[in-house]
Amino acid sequence: MIHHVCMNIDGAIINAKDLRGCITVEGQTLNTVAEVRAWLNEQKTKGYRVLPFGYCKCFDFQKGCPGHETKEECVEHEAICKIASAICEEEKTCQHWCGVYTDCKAYQEAKKIYEERKAK
Predict the structure, then answer these.
(1) By CB distance 3.0 to 4.6 Å, which of 15, 36, 44, 84 could disulfide with 110?
(2) 24-50: buried (b, 16+ CB within 10 Å) or exposed (e) per residue?
(3) What is the total count of domains within the chain?
(4) Which of 76, 52, 62, 49 is nearest to 3 (CA)?
């Protein structure tokens, strides 16, 4: 079983100084403790408890990654997410996390592209 890593928001708020320079939001790197804490608190107000560190098809913002049976499933999903990130027209304004929400327009288009490439 494969599990993706996530970050507990409450723990991150406590350790915000260690996260300075590690989080980028809308193209801006959060460089101060105040910026990091403000952004984490904003995520908390959305009802999130944990945040993903990378791509995860079934991520739950309360419990994290539920686990995946095969590595192939993860590799395929990661490839689709990379394509989605590259073609996303709303990259800077989108409130979704690429790889978490598979119902967005960019993800659906990327899945088609991936399937076409895979068929070749």
Answers:
(1) 84
(2) eeeeeebeeeebbbebbeebeeeebeb
(3) 2
(4) 52
- Whether residues 110 and 76 share a domain: the answer is yes
Q: What is the residue range of 82's domain? A: 71-119
0.90 cut: is pTM over it?
Answer: no
- Verify that 47 and 75 share a domain, yes or no: no
Of 30, 10, 28, 12, which is closest to residue 20 (Cα–Cα)?
30
pLDDT tens track for 36-46: 999 999 999 98
Query: Position 15: which residue type?
Result: N
Q: Give residue-wise pLDDT tens across range 79-111.
A: 887 888 788 776 655 655 565 566 678 888 888
| Domain annotation covers residue 58 | no
